[in-house]
Amino acid sequence: MSNINNKTRLKIKIEGAVQGVGFRPFIYRIATELNLNGWVNNSSEGVFIEVEGSRENLEQFLSKINTEKPAISIINNLNYKYLAPLNYSKFEIKKSVSGAKTAIVLPEIATCNDCIQDIFNPKNRRFEYPFTNCTNCGPRYTIINSLPYDRNNTTMSNFTMCSDCQKEYENPLNRRFHAQPNACSKCGPHLELWDVSGNLISSHNSALKLTVNAIKNGQIVAIKGLGGFHLVADASNNDAVTTLRHRKHRPDKPFALMFPNMETVNNHCQVSDLEKQLLLSPQAPIVLLFCHNRGHIAESISPNNPYLGVMLPYTPLHHLLMKKLGFPIIATSANLADEPICIDENEALIRLKDIADLFLIHNRPIVRAVDDSIVRVVGDRPLILRRARGYAPLPTLTNYDFPPMLAVGGHFKNTIAIAQHNQVFLSQHIGDLATTQSLQAFEEAIAKLSSIYDLKPDSVVCDLHPDYISSQWAAKLNLPLTRVQHHKAHVFACIADNDIKPPVLGVAWDGTGYGEDGTIWGGEFFLVTDTDCPRVAHLRQFSQPGGEKAVKEPRRSAMGILYEIFGDELFRSPPPPLRSGVVRTYLAPFKDMSASAGQIYQKMLNNGINTPKTSSIGRFFDGVVSLLGIRQQVSFEGQGAMELEFLLRNNINQKYSFIIRDTNPLIVDFEPIILGILDDIKINLDRSIISAKFHNTLADIIVEIAQKIAIKQVLLTGGCFQNKYLTERTILSLKQANFTPFWHKNIPPNDGGIALGQIIINNR
Ligand code: ZN
Ligand code: ZN
Ligand code: FE
Q: Is the residue at 713 inside a domain?
């Protein structure tokens, strides 16, 4: 009991992600443990607390808030002051001030350890119940229709709690106190197994058992999860994997895997402490791990790729399923090629009818499609490559005060963003806006995110590219429209992600973006000052015969690059030795090319027919991929560049020479790089060494440009910086040359970050 004589009162205000995470029950618990009286409540501004007791206990209380707070909560600000006591007689959780639309919608939280124990304990009333959750875990963003986050505003409103669940919900000492999706097998959602025609085969636990058997027998099951359907198959069954690839029209792109537990992950992959932390985190993303022992995992899961995309179970349904299976499964987004992920069972029957053999569904509706996030550890910290479940829609905090604004992002890996006050809410990954389904998902994402925050935009921002569907869509809104250059948007996304102030040298390297001069950019350097953002350097341009076709055919980029250097010499017949001494017919891009195909290329390049100029590093990568004979066709963007990265030998320090031309903007001339590569091809130098030399050269280019521009802060953004070796080598080289490098952390370096950059740049 506290000593009456030295009793004092502590008033605390906490801001951050502290609502809907079990924060008030946590405060209740530590207050009562320390014999403190007073109260806690939620308001639109955050959590308010008043507690009374001995000074010593109050200090302990403060320190426990920091050390024992719920894992998912984020404290942005904690203010407190000591006051005279009011002699409270008990500790209570006061009613919230409701209707606040400034509260933050939280992302999904992976099943907590307490809930895992519940579902595996035969004596627990939630034994094997696949929709178990508590205030520390479970669905959030995928079930919420509107704020405040109360059960009747979620898709759980159809389910009335039984008396046991209701008691938990009302008891501040219970970890299900105000857990909005609280449920049990008596009152909550349940499973059903359907055949391809939607006929009920089985329900509840027997549906799960039959699903397990089907997967063991090599069948493909569409399983409704948290943010959409997964297509699931035995990862060791090569026939099942091949069938899935065929049915999904996805020839090479790696499939994500779900492993039963950490132990099986360790058996197959190299896992650092940080990677382990990520796998087991409340966000539970797919983590790209180096696979040292494929074991039974089919080669066809990730052809020519030493990495595996690995996640651990993150819902009770996954835990139950994986425990019964005991082996890794494919758990890939249920869609056809680049369409958005499927979320509704009736829609799934139509869209997935030619892909899945069975459908394991449940009756808790999903409000919005939220894919699994993808993370890779780069430069000793996580780099989010696809930002969705677990991360979206947490806001990026800025120093601006935004008028209500909408940004529609780019075309590939589209996300949208809305801004209000000092916050930018970047949506979950939507996808490539190439199909009617994805356009619909794009429109829905805008409508739903705006309505949650009651936001009516005053203005809209889009990409400069006139042909992007997102740009055309934005132009049809009756709002003031700003078009932002693609690579500048990348740079400002990275500035916001790192919260840095100009001056900054922004390096934006990617595949494709519409430039201010109408050519295709992608190897760009910008000098960002408080008022301006000029393009200060770029890669020498080359022709891209066939335009967009070059994305799927690295050979086209090689043609453009070689033609830039050798001109018509390249196509002369009989082929002469080129300047480097190599004869063209010896080179990989020409090896199985017919004479007539060669003539077509020559004609296009000579006359500039459908051969846009580009300064894209992504296409430059493709050209090298083609020259080295790694591949002449790709089935997804960046496939060639990834294979070039995977081929690379780590302990090589050699590099090629290059020239920086002293023009304005500076031009990075690649001619010596290509001549060097041709020399190495001539002597049959191992491609793993050529790849290393090439990557090292790119890092050196950035350092040399930084030295010429002489700005200390150098920022790396764009899809090329998903490349681990390139990013890490550049970071190291910049540091050695006394620069301060910045790269992405919470926002993807690829086009998934564009919308955030559009907002920031529009507000400058
Ligand atoms: Zn839980
Ligand atoms: Zn119940
Ligand atoms: Fe881009």
A: no
